[in-house]
Amino acid sequence: MQSRMDRGFQRYQKEYEDKALEVLRSGWYILGREDEAFEEEFASYVGTRYAAGVASGLDALWLAFRVLGIGKGDEVIVQGNTYIASVMGITINDATPVFVEPNAYYEIDEEQIEEKITPRTKAVLVVHLYGQPAKMSRIREICDRHHLKLVEDCAQSHGACFDGKMTGSFGDIGCFSFYPSKNLGAFGDAGAITTDDPELARLIKIYRNYGSEKRYYNMVVGANSRLDEMQAGLLRVKLRHMQEITQERRELAKRYEDGIQNPLFMKPKVMEHTEPVWHQYVIRVPELRDELKAYLEEKNIMTIIHYPIPPHLSEAYRYLNIQEGALPVTEKYAKEVLSLPIYTGMTYKEQDEVMDALNRFHR
Ligand SMILES: *Cc1c(COP(=O)(O)O)cnc(C)c1O
């Protein structure tokens, strides 16, 4: 059993196919009516004034720092246990990531942010990892007090709320990925930013299209990071069903919470004031994690490690010169985490098989 993205397609198949045909027949394929409608609907869903479609989550991240004017010599605070794209969004702009350890909820430890602030710090990048929101009330307060920009990486947190407010609406800019396996996944690469600032929204739209607002007049050296009409149209279809898609994941998470009864694992905890969306259901296995993974695989149950190598130890970031041991909590999590199968259309029977296998596992 592995993540079955076809189940999510099949559930709304007719709507997707109708939309795909409509786009094919429209004669317009990049940045058009579907994109504009999606931006409006997505902004309204997240609770921001603006959204702008881009080509991927990574593009949303690096373009966000670019339009905020963050670059060489600037530092951005980010949690150590994230997907490497979060960090690349910073370093593509020649800015320097400064890592903070995660808390017991796998989110940035908000109480360790202030000690990392230097005169060069320009922003905090919060990653709502696994679909669990970070402690946004405290983080917003820290950013305001120190005049730092706040950027949110919401690639795993579409629809997740802190104090009833959606992730992506707390920061100066929210960055979303619609990679197919994400909760709001497209059928190819896609991404978006959200913001309340009309100037930032305008700048993103300029940068994503070769730096031009008016055709063939180029203001800045931009990128080709446009959202195509097919993805925008299909995302509009899926967005209409997000409540159901999210509810289903919450039910599956609840069943895992109730059904997993093995003292060898730690189940995820939910922070007060938050409503996670369970992009991943991540358990921690302090001992025998790799043995458990192999044991499950033998039973045809596929699990994933998010992520086995923390960014600061990856080859790509050797130049940062951060030694092993520098982020003990981050490094410990990398050795202990295991993501269980959870996806749209997962049946209770399939989930019971996973839980059964987990509960039978022993030393
Ligand atoms: C998926 C992901 C990204 C990157 O998104 P892409 O669309 O693949 O570029 C960034 N950050 C996090 C936390 C992600 O999970």
Q: Explain this structure to me?
A:
With 363 residues, this protein is an alpha/beta fold. It has two domains: 5-239, Type I PLP-dependent aspartate aminotransferase-like (Major domain) (Aspartate Aminotransferase, domain 2, 3-Layer(aba) Sandwich); 242-360, Alpha-Beta Complex (Aspartate Aminotransferase, domain 1), CATH 3.90.1150.10. It contains twelve helices and 14 strands. Helix 2 (13-26) packs antiparallel against helix 8 and helix 4 (57-67) packs parallel to helix 5 (84-91). The structure holds pyridoxal-5'-phosphate (PLP). Residues 56-58, 82-83, 85-86, 127, 153, 155-156, 177, 179, 189, 191 line the site of pyridoxal-5'-phosphate.
Identify the overall geometry.
globular
Q: Which CATH first-tier class of the largest domain would you pick?
A: Alpha Beta
Q: Give the termini separation.
A: 23 Å
Largest sheet: 7 strands, mixed
Structural class: alpha/beta
> Runs with pLDDT <50, length 5+?
none
- Number of DSSP strand runs: 14
Hetero groups in this structure are: pyridoxal-5'-phosphate
Helical percentage: 25-40%
- What's the number of domains? 2
Provide a quick synopsis of the model:
By secondary structure, this protein is of the alpha/beta class.
Supply the key terms:
7-stranded mixed beta sheet, Aspartate Aminotransferase, domain 2, 3-stranded antiparallel beta sheet, 12 helices, Aspartate Aminotransferase, domain 1, 37% helix, binds pyridoxal-5'-phosphate, 2 domains, 363 residues
